[in-house]
Amino acid sequence: LEIARKHIRRRYRLLPYIYTLFHESHATGAPVVRPLFYEFPELDPELAQDQFMLGSHILAAPVMERGQRMRPVYLPDGDWYEFESGKKYQGGAEHILPAEPGYFPVFVRAGAILPLSPGGIHSADALSQPPILEIYPAAKMFGRMTTDDGFSTAALQGTTMEMSMQANRERNGNIKLDVSIEKKKYVPPYRNMVVHLPAEYRSVSYRNKKEECSGIQLAAEDRTYSVSRFELPFQNIKAEFEFRPAFRV
After folding, report:
1. CATH of domain 129-243
2. Residue 9: which H helix or E strand, with range?
3. In this structure, what DSSP letter does residue 112 have?
4. Looking at the chain, which residues constitute the CATH 2.60.40.1180 domain(s)?
5. Do strands 140-147 and 214-217 pair parallel, antiparallel, or not at all (unpaired)?
6. pTM confidence score
7. How many CA atoms lie within 13 A of 80 on its CB side?
8. What is the pLDDT along the chain (249 residues), one digit of tens a residue?
9. What fold, for 2-109?
């Protein structure tokens, strides 16, 4: 039962990302669940027949066999972050992971900005919460979020909110984020948004303000690492996050 709860909670947290994928699929025909060769056409399909992509940012490697204790996962070129632990893996290679009961290997592509939810008791509740933008550092990062009221058919007439997120990593490690709300026929009920970054990012500067982060553990989300948490106003905004490794004073 606890394993079921874990994955139901995870679905609610991923709902803004999944919802965005379905909007994209409706508009463009792009599949929500994709074979790896859709995103990586140069990849030998024999390397990852039992894995799939959820959109362009998430790779899933389900455990397919009863009693399986080790799970080989092939990661395409580039860096990848394991969703539960935050551990970074190098792509272009196969990795063997322990497949403990209830563990579902999920990896996030470096360069992703995932729109997430803090959770909820049902889908409409999860989508009405202030979004969390979870940034997985790379030289360039991007993401999108599309939402609506969550229950009516108004979205079919274009009553949605569409937001794009782009970011660059500077030579000093700082990340510059640009959030642009491109379409706002639907006005969400929240005024703020949250940004999650690795713990080395300690402060944010925007509109002549500088604020320190609050460090949080993700244990309540069935994850095993800490992140830096920042709160920003939910509007068009440019912000710079300072990279401050632990050894710096």
Report:
1. 2.60.40.1180
2. helix 2-28
3. B
4. 2-109, 129-243
5. unpaired
6. 0.92
7. 25
8. 777 888 888 888 999 999 999 999 999 999 999 999 999 999 988 888 899 999 999 999 998 888 888 999 999 999 999 998 999 999 999 999 988 877 889 999 999 999 999 887 788 788 888 999 999 999 999 999 999 887 777 777 878 999 999 999 999 999 999 999 987 788 898 999 999 999 999 999 999 999 998 887 776 667 778 899 999 999 999 999 999 886 444
9. Immunoglobulin-like (2.60.40)
